[in-house]
Structure formats: C-alpha cells, structure tokens
Amino acid sequence: MAALTPISRKPLSFVLPTAAAAGGGFGLFLGTGNGSGLIGVLLGAAVIAAIAYGFIVVIKNEGLAKWISIVGFAFVGYIYSGVALAITAGLIGMFYHWLIYWLYEGRYRAKLLPYLTPGQVAWHYGFRCIAGVIFIFLITPILVIIPLSFNAQDFFTYTPGMLRLDPDAYSLKHYQDFFTNNEWQRSMKNSLIIAPFATIISVSLGTLAAVGLSQSHMPFKGTIMAILISPMIVPLIISATGMFFFYSDLGNFMENTLGMSKNFAGYIKVILAHAVLGIPFVIITVTATLVGFDQSLTRAAANMGAGPLTTFFRIQMPLILPGVISGGLFAFITSFDEVVVVLFVGSAGQKTLPWQMFTGLREQISPTILAVATILVVVSICLLTVVELLRRRSERLRGMSPA
Fold it and tell me: 218 by DSSP, 3-state: which?
C-alpha cells in the first residue's frame, strides 16, 4: 500500500486564489438571485479570500476559526432572512472553513501518491470538478423543478423570497391540490391501473422471448431480436400512429362483437399498447442476465426427470430473477411516464397522469404540475435504486463481483 503524502502547509499565493474561486461560485448563485451575477461573483470571491486571510494570518487557530465561521455566517443569514437561512448559512460557513484549512494544511494531498507532480494533482481534482459540472448540468432540470414545487405563489419562477430562503415563500399547497383535485386523482388512478397490468404482460412475454432467444439452436436470433426491440428504436410518434389504426379495429371488435363497454375496451387497448413498449426493456435485461447462465444446470435437471416448466421455475427463474425484476421496473416506468401513445390509443376515460400534466401545460398553466413532477422524480429514483441493487445481486449470483 502506498505511503501517504506528508502534509505541509501551502503558501497564501495558492490558498487565497483557490478559496476565492470557490467563493465566487457561491456568490454567483446569490448575485443572480439579487439581480447581478457578476457583482455576486466579485463579492463572494473577495469575502472568502478575506476570511481565509483572517483565519490563516490573524486568528491562527483552526478550532476558533471554525466557530467564528459557523456563527458569523449563521448571524448574517439570520439578519438577512431568519432562522431557515441562518441554519443554511451556518452549514455554508462550516464548508468554507473546512475548504480553507483543507487547502492550507495540504490535506488534499494526504491520500494521493507522494510522487505526483502539482500538474497531476491539479488534473486529479480538475477531472472530478469537470465530472461534477457535467453531472450538475444533467440534473439541473430536476434541481430546478423540486424547489419550485414548494413555491407559495402560482409562478413557474423563483420569487425573491424563495432565493432568500424566506419560510413564507414556501408552501405545500400545490401538493395539496394534487391530492385533493378530482382530475389529478382520476388520472393518478388510471396510471396505477394501466402501468401494473402492462408491466405484468411485458414481463411475461419478454421473459419467455428472452429465454427462447438464449437457446443456441434458435434460428434467425438476430432478426427476431431486432423485431422485438424495434418499439424502443422506432420514433414513438410512428409507433403511436401504427397503434392507433391497429387498436381502433381491435376496439371495434371488442365493443361490437364481444359486447365490451367502450371504457373497458379503452383500458385494454392502452394496456396492450404500453405492454408493447415495455417488452423490449424486459428482453434486453433478461437476455443480459442469461449471458452468464450455465446451461449445464438445465441439462442436469432434464437428466434427473424435471420437465421444462419445473426446470424453468426451479432452476432458471431464481437465477435470472434480478434481471426479470429490473426489466419489469423499466417497463413500469415506461408505462407510467408514457404520454404519446395514450393520446393516440386512449380516450378521456383513460387519461393518465402524464396526459393530465400535458393538458395542464397546454390548456392551463397549473403549478401543480411541478408537484406531480417532483413526486414522479422521487418514485423514479427509488425504482432505479432498486434496479441497481438487483443488478449488483445478479452479478454476485453469477460470480462477476465479490460477495
């Protein structure tokens, strides 16, 4: 194991500009909220550089400097906008205190290899900063929507009170509207009816298709795979147009010949259409799981007298279950978030949550959309977390990663 780099204090010519750059980044946020980003950058850089100089040259006591930083930032926050901002500002003060001494004491090199040059150290942290900036760029739409969903005003923009972290500028009224409004609740109910049934069909058919395609004697596997996953490749508007004509005839058959009600037939059409969109995700995840499957297990089960169904449910299914569940979660998310196909295939009786959100944007600018979007983001994050945990479990079962 490589020895840790000995810690040595760094000159002010390095610490002050670096701390000032970090202060300018935070000043940009505050300055933009108050009308001038440039002034915010300059003031933020100057304040943090002055604080760093005071801590290092004047106070010369890290423990005392820590409390001065926390209490000072918290006091300014309290004067500016009360208790909420005081707590946030205190945490910010703690961070900048840590950053200043992390730079000054050379702690940033403590866990790096001792022979790295300053340029290599700069690239080590610069690369992480670049990756962080890219990550922030990708999740910025989510970061913007979530705070806005708590806006006390019926606006799609940040109010001055929100930027000051004024408690009166935040409210749960948009969430209350979502849970009490009949239109939103009806659309939520429809989504919770359609998505699970579409997921069950997608998982059943997709798993069977993946198992069949994994057989070595299966002819034209590439062509069949291309056809089965085409719904996720073909532009959705084209698929929706084709589904419109196909399911129109199917709906007429169910209503006129089978005597089904128009509303019930509409649910069946939307469920089948969403199942078609979800099947490719199940096929891909289950096929990936079957790549590491030992086919000798199924042959051994057959030699011991087990039938195909017994072999599948007792041998294959327990090992590929993480992939099946992952595919089912992707299929559920696809159905729950889909809006184009349901506009073509469904009717007003099958209005789903994304459809209601689309209507809210097109016909009436309802801030409740922000609350619904936040709820969907949280649900998606939970589902994707489950998918990742299942992926790691699948790798452990197949011996691709340590237990």
Answer: coil
Residues in Cβ contact with 38 at an 8 Å cutoff, skipping those fewer than 6 apart:
31
Dump pLDDT digits (tens) for 69-110.
999 988 888 887 677 778 888 999 899 999 999 988 888 888
Least Cα distance to 331 among 147, 203, 190, 219 occurs for 203
pLDDT at residue 304 tops 90: no
Q: What's the pTM value of the predicted model, to 2 decimals?
A: 0.70
Nearest to 378 by CA among 322, 336, 315: 336
CB atoms within 10 A of CB 199: 25
- Continuous H helices in 253-367: 262-290, 296-303, 308-311, 317-337, 340-345, 353-362
Domain architecture of the chain: domains with CATH: 1-114 (no CATH), 116-171 (no CATH), 177-397 (1.10.3720.10)
CB 66 within 8 A of CB 94: yes
Question: What are the pLDDT digits (tens) for 244-268?
Answer: 888 888 888 888 888 888 888 889 9
DSSP SS3 for 177: helix
